[in-house]
Amino acid sequence: MTGDNWVAKLSSKYGAALGAKPAMFALVPFCTLAIVFPIGILMPLLGGREKGLMTDVSMELHWSQAGGKMSKDLSKLLDNRDDIWTDSEKQHLVVYSMRGERAGDDLLLKDVLEEMLIDLKFFSSLEVITSKGNTYTTWELCSNSVSPHNPDVSKHLNFPCIIATPLGCFKEYGEILPPDYAAWVEPAINPGDMLLNYLDRPSFRNSTAEEIKAILSDGCFANNNQLHYTPNMLFGAYEF
Hints:
The chain is mainly alpha-helical. Helices cover 43% and strands 4% of the residues.
């Protein structure tokens, strides 16, 4: 009973103080924000942090339990990757050009896009089997921070790799999406969602050369409305 009285008295005093000076109490969170926000902005500059406003923890580690097996495995992977690969080696560039009798010809043609699609299908079918017998696919070589690797397939959703390619502007790119993503995510995407599907994009197989160029002249979005591939990103100095 004594404890209840103490809590009641404290609450009563707090309520009376809040009622007497509401403006002062309202200023407290704003003052706190004014102090904390600049610190968050300056941390990357003063403390060498590079991967976030208030933390240098990678996005992958945010989705694992601190100190858990997945967290330790991811930390080892990220450390080894940073030791072995330079920043330039983490990105790969494939350049297509006409040769032989077709040297100098236009690249944005149906048969060239078909060849690009064959190459991407090969890339998407790669598998790596470790000495312990674990199998990893192309999709797990990409940075799937939304859903890190889980041996239980029912709990693991692979998202498309970030690949800047002219094929991404067309419906056919859906042919190389991760199977689970194509089966469950693509059909569920609605107009206005942040995610964008490939089902409603034009088909290069049903387009003329002029239509293909018109579609690509403005670039296109990836699988979300936050990442737009500009023509310069897709073709470099190509002139339409």
